[in-house]
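User: Hi! I'm a student and our assignment asks us to look at how structure tokens line up with a sequence. Could you show me two examples?

Assistant: Happy to help. In each example below, the sequence comes first and the structure tokens follow. Example one:
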Amino acid sequence: MSAEPDGPEDRLRRFATIWSRAVFPVTSTSSTRPEFEAQLLPLARRLSEVLRARSFDAADAREVGAALVDAHCTDPDALSRTLDCVDAYLVLYCGEDGDAEDLRARSARLQHAMAAGFAGALRARTLAEQEAIAQAALKAQGVVAEALHASEARFRAVFEGAAIGIGIADLDGNVLQVNDALMRMFGIADPTLGGRRATEWTHPDDAPQTWRLYEELVRGEREHYHVEKAFYRPDGTVLWTNLTVSLLRDADGTPQYQLALMEDTTERRLLNLRLRYEATHDALTGLPNRSFFFERLEKALSAGPGQRFGLCYLDLDGFKTVNDSLGHAAGDRLLVEVADRLQACATAPGEMVARLGGDEFVALTTGPDARHEVDELAGRIMNALLAPVSVDGRELTVRGSIGIVEGPAGERSPAEVLRSADITMYRAKSAGGNRFELADPEADARVITRHGLTTALPAALERGEFFIEYQPLVHLGDGSVRGAEALVRWLHPQHGVLGPDRFIPLAEHTGLIVPLGRWVLEQSVRQARLWRERYGDGGAAGPLRINVNLSPCQLTHPGLVQDTVEILERAGVTPDALCLEVTESALIGADDDLLKPLRRLAEMGVDIALDDFGTGYSNLANLRRLPVSVLKLDRSFTQSMQQFPADPVDLKIVEGIVALAHSLDLAVTVEGVETGAQAEQLRILGCDTAQGWYYARPGPPERLHELALVDATG
């Protein structure tokens, strides 16, 4: 076996070699295969650039399709083999390290654009040939007219030897004479065409102006006209022609005859229709593809007043498992069966089904009653998926999630409608799948806002849009401030101040929580140093310790210990000035490897607090092996203490937790203290410190000490 290509250029040349070997046998060229490969190499390079470009440009792909025609690749198999090569090998050899799903989607769009460019170039070439024929026909007209006046023998030579069909009729439309080429086109042997008149040769596909032009010509108001026209042959088949009809006058200029010149374009038309079909239909399932669907959707959305549309966006549940376990061939057979079932569900006028790609399908219905019809259509689709699909002797259960969008035409663009349907479909999938959901504008807005916040997070950190507020930790015994919890906020340019519940989950999902958490730690430790310089290192004068929340992602980050040490050293702060809060749920079932960074930090002198204690259903025995020094009791245990008398069960639970914590030499902090009665009850129960609105709301560092003292003294 030969070695794999080393660099991008080698992979590109390998793709060009595969392409040339596939297409060369069906190419009408005098070049050798290596010469033909050299012609394809720059085209392959353009395809690679389009695939990897920041934004997709269909124009380049269309130009590559057009260039195939210039390279004499006009056989339909040349396009089919080209698209097969691009589909199978372009992403493999030219995709490099890009996102696989995005590259496959781009490759599909690129193939559609190539097919469109190929069809356009072939049509342009055809038109050029037609023009040449028309010029020759006009020239033949002059020759025929001269022959009629000069020599019957010369006319006969032109008439009978012409490669295009020629017919002569009088001004009443009676066919007088036709040549052999025209009879072969119609598949007849009678030179008079059975005595038929030209006006009898109508066809349902005749252009509106065809017979108006004919009437103008026989009246002498027009010298000639050119149209594309279909004729019925005697056997019922259809003959498509480029028809040029000219008026013949006598020597005095009086109209005498009409001369028809016909070029048979039936095969070329069928080829164009085939190319159009391939460009607008999915190769695997035969359903309309994304581009064709968007054309229909745009037409439906631009319908007149009173018209409505309904759209079902279907994604199969668990389809990736089928591909991974049974292979892509089995997955393809499953998709074909699903496509057949969906096609059978959308047979009413105004309904269509299309495949957008992968295992995503859409069904569209239009009309004034679309609101009711789209619900019925979704129900038919769900019922159609109930029966298992047999693939390779296995009975596969098919389930799907559907997002439904319905509304009046003219209010939204196709992209907006599809985005809403996509969001709704994922809402159905998140709810367990195997169901359909109706679009909800408010839910759409939340998802769009969530996406916008996610994409804006990295730039927000760079632009300094985050800031920190501090909430004091108050000693329940003497009311002194012993520390403060750092709470990050986002000052969003459009949405204002956002709390951590709005963006911390997004930061964790994207991985930005690590740099954001490092920034919060740096700012908080720097603030702790300022407080210590102002209030000293002991006593009850001010907040001496800063509490910083640590997310599960940060906990598993390999640089946690090193980053913390460096931040403390740069700020000139001892480790006892810092307390890292870790949620109980993050430590449930934690192994020694996960606890190792926390143990190292605890050994250095950094306090570790177990946050939201009591919400994670953890085994209390686990407290002995966790390197924590503080329990932060969740507010759910103390809410009843805001009223008097407090719930005796809650009192017993808190009393037991405090006793257990103190027996393990752990301090107890309570969150969410909002009343004086609550604070007093917690003090009696033995809790050490507390925080909440009773003492102070989170605020800027310069106001924290004053607010804490005012709230603590009442």
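Example two works the same way, sequence first and then tokens:
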Amino acid sequence: MAARSKGYEPSMRDRVRALVALATVGAGSAALPGTARAADAGGAITVGAGETYVVDATTALASLTLAEGGTLAAPDGYGLTLTVDGVETGSVLTATLATDTTIAPGTYTGDLVLTVAEQNPATFAGVTFPLRQALYVGADGIVAARSVTSALVGGTVTDAAADGVSVTSTGEAFDGCYVAEGASYAITDTAIGFTGNGRCDFVGDGAAVVGTGSGTRLVLDGVTVTNKGVVRSGLVAEDGADVVVKNSAIQCLNGTLPADYVFGGGANMLVVPWRLGISGNVRATNVIGTGTRATYLNSTIASETWGAFSTDSVSGAQATAVNCAISNLGDEGYGTFADGDVTERILGCTLDVGTYATVVGASNSTLYYGDSTRADVAQLNTDLELGLTEAELAALPEQSTTVTSRQFGVMWHGAGTLHISGGTLLTTAATTFLDKAVRATITVDGSQGAALTPGNGVVLQVMETDNPGSNDGVYTEPTDDPAKDGTWDVSTAHDTDTAAAFTAIALTGDFYNAMRTGRNMVLGFDASAVTGVLSASASRHAIDTITAAEYAQLGHVTNTARPVVNNGVLVTLTAGSAWTVTGTSYLSRLTLSADSAVTAPAGSTVSMTVDGEPAAIEPGGDYSGAITLTVT
């Protein structure tokens, strides 16, 4: 049975040394055939080439010399961890994509502790990872038998909380705090800094903090995480855990991939798939599994590239950020990722991102961009059981969400719904909404100042996917004209269509549906003004063939307005809305309320044909067929 400690005092590392000092240093270790020398009177262990030294009890040392070809090992079912002056170090994965670690050859001196701890097995995609961590907290509190307490420096650690602690790692695949088994735990005023690669961010192998398991409640307040390494995540919430992060800062920078790494998915995904249009090898945060909740308040979350605020393979999950700064420090990456059945809320946040504000990655995702109003935050406090006090609620200022993207706004490669409200400002260098052949449902309420500013002049792009389907695939631009599908109704909205509804907003920009197969673009404008081209189109990339080397070309297309084939464009104007047509537009349906209008820019006129015949654009009109609007 795992031993449990009721609490560590500030000098935890000294306490560990006092315990092992009761026996002769090295007396808990056994030399296997190949014979390593036992520790000498000065507290030293030397392991020569070809020798294996099994450490079967936690041991304090003054020096350790491990020759190339020598091995330090723990008994079966246990992991071995070295700390030097309180820093976890020396641990390396035994091979690329291996799951176990060993101590690297070298000479180590100082305040050394070799900790023998029970492995903490975690399984994902059929692969089991023997996790090691500075602090393991279970249902009854600290599990000392699974904790490397010599890596906990300063502060106070009890069964309920860790406060003022520092955890540093320069080894590989080592965790800071692992909270599981339905535990309730708080981490406050703590600094965690890891340099070196992790192994799998789907189970948090190498993460600073992990909260996992149904009933687990983990609260971080005033925690700083600075990591640098492949899949060396800041925080992973998984498998039904409830994690709340307040007044904290998480920053994760890319590491160096093993030279022989070949891309693998699932448990072996150490880099983002290039077919997402980005690069990078670490996500700052991740939400995984069924029923998991992660809420960040008044915190900063930054990744170098890949992703800052991620969800992956979730069901019934909730990911929320209130008054947070979310960023990519490099030129690429996404701010947030909504994958699977997840509700993701971005309220009162500032996003400064490289490639995408948000990626919608799988069906049933629902995403909100809005303000952090007192009423909404108070409701979340109740609904998500955040435990915020009245003073904490009062201290959170009301603010709007501001998004600045160096490329796109929201990209869909899985079906999902986006709601934008309040004073949200979404400013992008490229297209605002990029839909790659899936059902995207968009509602934008501009009544409180929400605004969209696309740098390339395209508000919504619907297109065939340019994802080649596999990491060794190639995207090739089709050159033939699409064949008409006689079964597809281009003048009627379908549940599978892309639909965007705008209320009380002024928009300047174009809307294109470049689908070759059956998918309509359904646009509704209520008490709104839109200036631009709304049309079926043919889209083209700058190059016809895109491989991994050209991943940055994905999503970037130009459009040529063309008559509808299988890509219907249905436009409805209500409540005094006005569409100012700036170029030839091809529709399949146009519906106007009696107080709405279709006009041309000053000095020009707009005319319409339906099925080739001239038709007047009249208030209250409802037209369907092959509609062409021309500006002269």
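Here is something you could point out in your write-up. Residues 309 and 336 are 5 Å apart (CA to CA).
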